Amino acid sequence: MTTTATPLQAAASAAPSGNLEISISRGDLLRELTAAQSVVERKTTIPILSNFLFEADDDRLTITATDLDQSLRTSTTAKVKKPGACTIPARKLYDYIKLLPEGEISIKLMDNHWVQIRAGRSNTKMVGMARANFPTVPEFPETGALKVNVAALRSMISKTIFAISNEESRYTLNGALLVLKSESMAMVATDGHRLAHIERFGETISGVSGEKKTLIPRKCLGELSSLLANTEDDTLEFADDEQTLYFRIGGRVLTSRKLTGQFPNYEAVLPRDNNKFVIVRSEDLMGAIQRVAQFADERSGAIKIRMEQNELKISSSSTDSGESEDTIETPYSYDPLVVGFNSAYLLDFLKAIGNTGEVRLEFKDAQSAGQMRPEESGEDSKYRYILMPMRI
Q1: How far is it, in rounded angstroms, from Cα 157 to Cα 178?
Q2: CB 3.0 to 4.6 Å from 72: which of 39, 80, 184, 331, for a disulfide?
């Protein structure tokens, strides 16, 4: 089922009808509300989107949140005294349930869409809205889903999401490209100034012939990342249709509107002949960049990397704050080279690989893109970060 009609088309026909009445443990309810609340639109011009949809039937409570671009549907066991459906203000409910002590909570739909919440000696009534106003949320397709390794996908998101563009005008750069093959998976993101690319081998993905490329929006990746961090499942199910991406993790289904458009030909910009390189401990490099960046120009964040005989020098200066230089001793036997980079972009990469091990910096000359990668990435994955130099 896809959202081809108006997004706020009534969905009452699909819902259990009647005056919902349930009891549920605070722990179970809070866990599911925590998962769903980040999807709810904070500042919306459509009031119903600020609400959770509660649907109770067959001893299960299903909670849905949507902002029209994406939705999350999650469920948990509950004692269902009367099946039914209602909507409850999401932020208010989440904040209130957090403040309640452990124990059973009873939730009951009253007249005029009011919802009564009782827990111990607390008795609260919240103003809901008509269930019929809640938009239809796409259903996970019955066929064609692919199984993807949870740990692998989570790692790939963390190593690329920071390189996604924040500029709304660069629409096709507002997401990361997932490339699935039968024996491998890759993810790539770029904002035009830098590019993060990770490929993992030995990942068996049945059902993929050739390669399947999917552009996943940044917001969806952030949501997916937190779902993957809070699951004990080893795999998730991924499917798509013409308009929607679907991810099913345990009892939760995340959907997202697809990004349309063509992702740039990133393979064309991967450096081929960066023949000068230096290897440094990532901890040393990060410390030096953080110190020197304090004195970089505030707007550009530009720092200078100078490589000469067995030395890597990192420096910056600005008329407002002064100047700073750090030196790291490391083998280097090529011609001296000075390259300028945005310090924040360098730090993003170093944070993504974790503050351990060594990192290799590869260069051609001062005008060409530099490449960074972990020195020991293992045989099962290949991670690289391409960075355009700055004129300084």
Answers
A1: 10
A2: 39
Q: Find all residues with CB under 8 Å of 68, minimum gap 6, and list them.
A: 7, 46, 49, 135, 257
CB 36 within 8 A of CB 63: yes
Helices and strands of the chain, counted as H and E runs = 6, 25
Last residue of a domain, one of 228, 249, 267: 267
Q: Are residues 263 and 276 in the same domain?
A: no
Query: What is the identity of the amino acid at 299?
Result: R
Residue span of the structural domain in which 289 resides: 271-387
82 closest CA partner among 25, 21, 24, 131? 21
Which of 225, 251, 267 is the C-terminal boundary of a domain? 267
Give the closest residue to 161 by CA, choosing from 186, 189, 142, 183: 189
- Statement to judge: residues 112 and 223 lie in one domain: no
| Residue 225: inside a domain | yes
Q: What was the pLDDT predicted at 7?
A: 43
For residue 229, the domain's CATH number is 3.10.150.10
> What is the total residue count of the chain?
392
In terms of domains, do 261 and 304 share one?
A: no
Q: Each residue of 211-243: pLDDT tens digit?
A: 999 999 999 999 999 999 999 999 999 999 999
Query: Would residue 171 count as lying in a domain?
Result: yes
Same domain, 231 and 297: no
C-alpha–C-alpha distance, residues 329 and 26, integer Å: 57
The tally of domains found in the chain comes to: 3
pTM of the model: 0.89
To the nearest 5 percent, what fractions of the chain are helix, strand and coil?
Answer: 25, 40, 35
Residues 360, 161, 307, CA angle at the centre, nearest 5°? 25
- The region, left, alpha or beta by phi > 0 then psi within -120 to 50, assigned to residue 120 is left
217 and 178, same domain (yes or no): yes
Distance CA 67, CA 223 (A): 13
Q: Cα(117)–Cα(128) distance, rounded to whole angstroms?
A: 12
Residues 171-218 have pLDDT tens digits of 778 899 999 998 899 999 999 999 999 999 988 888 888 899 999 999
Domain assignment present for 175: yes
Please give the sequence-ordered ranges of beta strands (E in DSSP) within 164-229, or none if there are none: 175-181, 184-190, 194-201, 211-217
- DSSP assigned state of 44: -
